[in-house]
Amino acid sequence: MKRTLFRNQLLPWLLLAPQLAITFVFFLWPAAQAVRQSFLREDAFGINTSFVGLANFKALWSSPEYLNSLQVTVVFAVSVTVLSMGLSLLLAVAVDRMIRSTSLYTTLLVWPYAVAPAVAGILWWFIFNPTIGVMPYFLDTIGYDWNHISSKSDAMTLVVIASAWKQISYNFLFFVAGLQSIPASLREAAAIDGAGPVRRFFDITLPLLSPTTFFLLVVNIVYAMFDTFGVIDATTEGGPAQATNILVYKVYFDGFVGQNLGSSAAQSVILMLIVIALTVVQFRYVEKKVAY
């Protein structure tokens, strides 16, 4: 390993300064402001401010709307994670078994990752639009009346599909890399011993993919918690009847639409703590079962 020595001790800090400045301005400072505002009660214009302590947090845990949003977020995050990781693993295994046109197949599957969440939401909104959409037409032929505007289950299905579709490409890249790092000799030896494709996958491939799977599990939960705001806003706006009002969207709606800044700040702090707690639990307990 080659080490680089800086004669001027100030130079490394100057090189790090742009990234440190961005981290402070766009991450640390807003987080500190959210924590501060969570203990305050202020009007929409920020003129009158009073310290209320934990009153904003106590009000949340006694609010049926917030508890409903918490339940919706759990269902949404689990559904998006399972669907996106399951489909991406299936596609990665299909690519790993291909001999020709692998690069073309991979390129086509990666393209959706370049689509912004709001654009992905609008795309699937048009596909499932009850009036002009293609999918409601085909579902009607089998006797299912699709309408995500009035049906809670249809609305949740729509946002889960749109959010998972956006994340499949990201998961796919890591699963393909993980599959290609598994020595072919192990699967060939199992095949010689008489193990079928399904047995080889569950006994050899899947355990050796556990580091990649664990990493993607953490990333997908964080993605479902934070990065799906654009999808929700472009498709259902939290409706119908709060059926898709996940925590990150409720933070925006209460803060920017309802102008309840103290409650919105408290919700953002709780959301941050939930994600931190989930990440710690995954690294503390789930990682023990990962075979590196």
Overview of the structural elements:
The chain is mostly helical and 292 residues long. It has a single domain (63-288), classed as MetI-like fold (Orthogonal Bundle). It contains 13 helices and two strands; from the N terminus they run H-E-E-H-H-H-H-H-H-H-H-H-H-H-H. A two-stranded antiparallel ribbon has the order 1-2. The mean pLDDT is 87.
Q: Care to give the gist of this entry?
A:
The protein is mainly alpha-helical and 292 residues long. It is 71% helix and 2% strand.
- CATH level-two architecture: Orthogonal Bundle
The biggest sheet amounts to: 2 strands, antiparallel
Helix content: over 70%
Report the span from N to C terminus. Answer: 23 Å
Strand and helix order: HEEHHHHHHHHHHHH
Strand content: under 5%
Write out the CATH superfamily name.
MetI-like
* Total separate domains: 1
Give the number of helices.
13
Assembly state: single chain
Radius of gyration: 23 Å
Strand order of the largest sheet: 1-2
**What class, by secondary structure content?**
mainly alpha
Q: Specify the CATH class.
A: Mainly Alpha
Can you tell me the overall shape? globular
Mean pLDDT: 87
Provide the CATH topology: MetI-like fold
List the uncertain runs: none
Total beta strand runs: 2
